[in-house]
Amino acid sequence: MLFFHYEEYKILIYVLAGLIFLLYLFLYQRKSAWLKAFGQRSLVNRFSKIPKIHRNLLKGTCMSAACCALGMVVLQPKWQTTQDHYEKEGLEIVFVLDVSISMLAEDVKPNRLQRAKMEISRLVQGLEGDRVGLVVFAARAFSLLPYPTNDYERVFLRILNMINENYVRFVPYGTNIGNAFILAMDTFSKENTKKVMILLTDGEEQIITRSQVAEAVKLLLERKDIAIYVVGIGDPKKASPIPKRDKEGNVTGYELTEEEETIYTKPNPVFLREIAEMVGGTYQHDATGNELKHIFAQVIERHKNIVGIKKKNIIKDVSQYFLGGALALLALYFIL
Fold it and tell me: Which of 61, 169, 281, 294 has the most beta carbons within 10 angstroms of its beta carbon?
């Protein structure tokens, strides 16, 4: 439906357009009278480029219509449509992100950590009404948000962007999934809302893990309101080195063991699937990083709860179409 921001002035535009057309006709009549006084009309029409009456009428119509269209631009025309807006119950989503040094491997482009961050960021930017939290872990787990937030841009995404290669090299070495589970459970609020935990890791097992996973299983049995998803990332068929880069992003070498041998990392899907089964969760693996967005979208779709449907008005400015029409009419005027 078309409407104007200054609807009350629309009649004035129509009147002015009509007056312009009448003025054009008046000037045409004066010109015709002058030509008639100048000499025989048939001779004047034969040896001059003066338009005939039907062309003059068409030129006058183009001019008045162009002025009318320009006037409509001033009135700020809008186009309104309606769409169904699905109101849903907000979720609490806590992302648990592995920041151990093996996440810098580049079997996933640009590397496992950066790809995980990119897809988490993309998912969060598409959320509406949900609250999100963030826990990172290596040898220890750290909650980067004291409680889930719905301030995506100023809080969550800014904190997520702080996690980089320097941060990874600062945290203690190792992968302690059990500690991550325990801390992530404490991040959820006590409110009666649907809760989802998404743990993303390459799953290289450390000795410290199993005892704390057992403790996490005990706690999770008491918190059946939390849906758990374990997502593995990285190529499980091929071991990859962990590059070192300078400030310009150039590879300067690879991570080495104490014996000066290159460290190779390979995800462990068997271990991650075992962990997911122990905590009553679901496990999926992405070897390339291309499936993460689909995995995340499926998780959200599975748990969203539609509580109502409302009509939502969509208003679009269409001034450019009126301006384009006015220019086209003016061009036709000069062509005729």
Answer: 281
